[in-house]
């Protein structure tokens, strides 16, 4: 019993004591109480031996995981020290022009407010300034490349003018339908003007006004579309040219395809060719989807004008081939989208959707020959003939004016000479003119005496009436 109670007492005492720490090697014990625990020791610590099965399990588990490809690894963080265009202008110690032509400015980050630093500040009413801000905002705020910003702005402007284009096409179709009648009246008006028949001119003008009012047409209304498009084109053209000639540093790497530097000319002259080609096609098919030959006016005159513009554009190729690529990008996008829009508006399904009248080819009258478009030589000869006719008419009018002035001067000199001779004859004593003048005065004297006597009697009668 005593032995059993002693064993129970020893067990209870051992249970109350805390567990003693495991004995550590001397080097590990010193490391635990080191003053600089973040330093590595000269010799790496040897881990305790593991069972033989553990490395095999670890290798099996790691082998089951897929190895990431180098392309899927995250990219290294961007350099936080990349300068901005504002920093280069304000803190580089260089002039603005030197900064804009430096290589550092090409990759520098740009903000919309940087336009003020490079001299593009504008007022509230500056249309050019607001267009510039909108174009630069597409690049800085939305992150678009410069070629995409130019194309996006062009498409946006053209879409805003779509309603005007559709209305112009409706009017052009109505005007083309009544154009033959208008041409007949214009021919009659020219004949009446040549015959100096003012009454017939008045009647023809009234008939012409009634015809236009009946069909709701006006020959000047188609000019509204080009009058609106031309200022927009020239404004945007000047903006892009100014940014390219500055030059804006980001434009040097904002190109597309074979043209990366938008401030330089196209080395292969592709953009100048496409710009002029699209311009000619737009004028041929019409910006509103109606061919130029089908609009109001004489078909022959319209064809000559078309040939003249085509010749002018082709001859201007040497002038635009050295334009900055940014300008030609805008020109190509603008005319290309206009051409695409005109082709779409010519489709019957689109016309039915927009409510546009579908015109049919008019049948020729019996004995009439189909219209044949003039060649470039015919246009040159017509222009030469028109120029010679204009010069001849101007010379004839000038000769008539000089002849009329000479006749007026001659008549004035003759009149002055006659007046001088008359005065000289009057001044001579005993001349016929003096006797006639004296006789006239003698004749007027009795008339003057009778008038005085009449007035005296009237005054006397008034006095007597006043007394009574």
UniProtKB/TrEMBL annotation:
Compositional bias (Basic and acidic residues): 398-408, 444-462
Family statement: Belongs to the OXA1/ALB3/YidC family.
Species of origin: Cryptococcus gattii serotype B (strain WM276 / ATCC MYA-4071)
Biased composition (Low complexity): 53-66
Positions of the UniProt region annotated as Disordered: 36-76, 398-420, 437-468
Transmembrane portions of the chain: 144-166, 223-248, 268-287, 308-333
Family annotation (InterPro entries): YidC/ALB3/OXA1/COX18, YidC/Oxa/ALB_C
Membrane topology reported for the UniProt record: Multi-pass membrane protein
Location in or out of the cell: Membrane; Mitochondrion inner membrane
Protein name: Membrane insertase YidC/Oxa/ALB C-terminal domain-containing protein
Listed GO MF terms: membrane insertase activity
BP GO terms, sorted: protein insertion into mitochondrial inner membrane from matrix
Principal place of residence: membrane
């Amino acid at each position: 019993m005593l032995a059993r109670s002693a064993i129970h007492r020893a067990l209870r005492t051992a249970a109350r004591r805390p567990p003693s720490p495991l004995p550590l090697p001397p080097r590990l014990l010193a490391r635990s109480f080191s003053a600089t625990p973040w330093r590595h020791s000269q010799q790496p610590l040897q881990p305790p031996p593991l069972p033989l099965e553990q490395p095999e399990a670890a290798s099996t588990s790691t082998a089951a995981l897929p190895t990431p490809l180098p392309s899927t690894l995250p990219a290294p963080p961007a350099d936080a020290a990349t300068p901005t265009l504002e920093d280069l202008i304000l803190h580089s110690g260089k002039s603005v022009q030197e900064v804009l032509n430096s290589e550092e400015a090409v990759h520098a980050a740009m903000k919309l407010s940087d336009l003020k630093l490079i001299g593009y500040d504008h007022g509230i009413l500056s249309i050019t300034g607001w267009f510039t801000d909108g174009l630069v905002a597409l690049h800085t705020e939305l992150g678009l490349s410069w070629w995409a910003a130019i194309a996006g702005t062009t498409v946006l402007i053209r879409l805003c003018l779509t309603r005007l284009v559709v209305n112009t096409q409706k009017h052009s179709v109505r005007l083309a339908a009544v154009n033959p009648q208008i041409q007949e009246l214009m021919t009659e008006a020219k004949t009446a003007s040549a015959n100096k028949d003012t009454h017939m001119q008045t009647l023809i003008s009234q008939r012409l006004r009634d015809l236009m009012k009946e069909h709701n047409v006006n020959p000047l209304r188609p000019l509204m579309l080009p009058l609106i498009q031309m200022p927009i084109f020239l404004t945007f053209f000047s903006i892009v040219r100014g940014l390219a000639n500055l030059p804006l540093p980001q434009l040097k790497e904002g190109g597309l395809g074979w043209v990366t530097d938008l401030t330089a000319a196209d080395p292969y002259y592709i953009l100048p060719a496409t710009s002029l080609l699209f311009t000619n096609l737009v004028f041929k098919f019409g910006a509103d989807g109606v061919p130029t030959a089908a609009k109001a006016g004489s078909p022959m005159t319209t064809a000559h004008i078309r040939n003249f513009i085509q010749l002018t554009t082709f001859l201007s190729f040497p002038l635009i081939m050295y334009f900055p690529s940014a300008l030609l990008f805008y020109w190509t996008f603008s005319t290309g989208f206009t051409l695409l829009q005109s082709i779409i508006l010519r489709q019957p399904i689109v016309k039915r959707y927009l409510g546009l009248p579908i015109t049919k080819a008019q049948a020729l009258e019996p004995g009439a020959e189909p219209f044949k478009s003039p060649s470039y030589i015919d246009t040159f000869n017509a222009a030469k003939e028109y120029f010679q006719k204009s010069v001849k008419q101007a010379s004839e009018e000038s000769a008539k004016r000089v002849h009329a002035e000479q006749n007026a001067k001659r008549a004035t000199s003759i009149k002055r000479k006659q007046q001088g001779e008359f005065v000289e004859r009057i001044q001579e004593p005993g001349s016929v003119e003096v006797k006639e003048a004296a006789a006239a005065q003698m004749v007027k004297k009795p008339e003057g005496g009778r008038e005085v006597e009449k007035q005296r009697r009237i005054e006397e009668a008034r006095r007597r009436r006043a007394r009574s």
